[in-house]
Each structure stands twice: as C-alpha cells, then as structure tokens.
Amino acid sequence: GMIGWQYTSKGRVNGIQGNVDMDVWYEDIVEEEKDITALQNMDIQKGNPQQFAQIVKNIKTALNLDFGLSFLIDETIDEVLLINLANVNLSTKAYTYNTTYALTQLLKWWGYGIEPTSQYGNAVSAIISTFQSQVGITVTGTTTADTWKKLLGK
Questions:
Q1: What is the pLDDT of residue 148?
Q2: Coil, strand, or helix at residue 38?
Q3: pTM metric for this prediction
C-alpha cells in the first residue's frame, strides 16, 4: 500500500489561487516485507487457528504480489477473496511463485505431508487431487474455485 503525509496546508502551486495541501507519498514497503517474512518463516502445525489466520493473510499478500491486487492484509475470508481465487487456477502448467507458496502452506496446515514450495509440481498436483477426492469435489489436480472454497472452509 501507500503511505501519505501532508506536510503543509499552506502550499503554493502556479495557476491555483490560495493555499493548497502539499503531500508526500511513499510505498509501504515495511509492511510488505513483514508479510513476505511471515510467508516464508512459519512452522505450520495442522489445524492451528492462529496459523490459519496468518495463511489467509499470506494468500492475500501473495495475490497482491503476483497479480497486482490490493487486498487489505487481514484474515477475512469474504466473497471478494473467493471470487479472485476462483480465477487463480494453479497447475503444473500455470502457477505463480507467491500464491503457490501460500497454497502449499495451506495444504500443510490441513495435514498433508508437504513442505511449502513455490513450485506447483506433480507432488502438489497429487495432493490437490487427493484433497478434492476427500472433500467430494471434481478431481482436477488444479486449484478450481471449489478447491479454494473447501481449502478455506467455505
């Protein structure tokens, strides 16, 4: 995100009569770096609710980084998130680094024997297929809209 600071309300700009607010804007790099660190350094325990909340934040951070979206980084799972994820069909042929990493964190949280990875290879595809079969949705080995919903408990 961006951070702004109004340094005066009495600025002058050619062509504008009277005082104008003068601002400086910075990209909020500190917050992103914190979230990227959380994305990579978490020791995931199956079913841990605090970690689930962090993984949801990681998914939003990943979507922002990989697709230029602007999610507020919180643990809310709402229709906006689900609609955006419905368009993220990760597979061995099409994956994105950060989103795949967050996905594999989520799979580990569910108890699957995988270490988080940024590569959507055959092992990830096989786990997705197993998950899809176990929850009774169409088995594709890719992250369909239904897969994301079930992974996020919806």
A1: 97
A2: helix
A3: 0.74
